[in-house]
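Field reference: sequence -> structure
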Amino acid sequence: MTLFDAAIRYDLAEIEPRLDGVQLAVNATNLFDRDYSTCAQGYCYQGQGQTVIGSIRYRW
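Structure field:
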């Protein structure tokens, strides 16, 4: 089974120089929300579902 993840980040200074140091980001895991489990040493664990997290970062 293959899982797909993605991430994108944008520096807002590209559109407005006053926003230098501000970045927007979106990270996604298990994009297609596949059900899966991981088994090791006799124990099985249910995989994490689809997760999307957005963030704003400022660096000065």
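Note: The mean pLDDT is 95.
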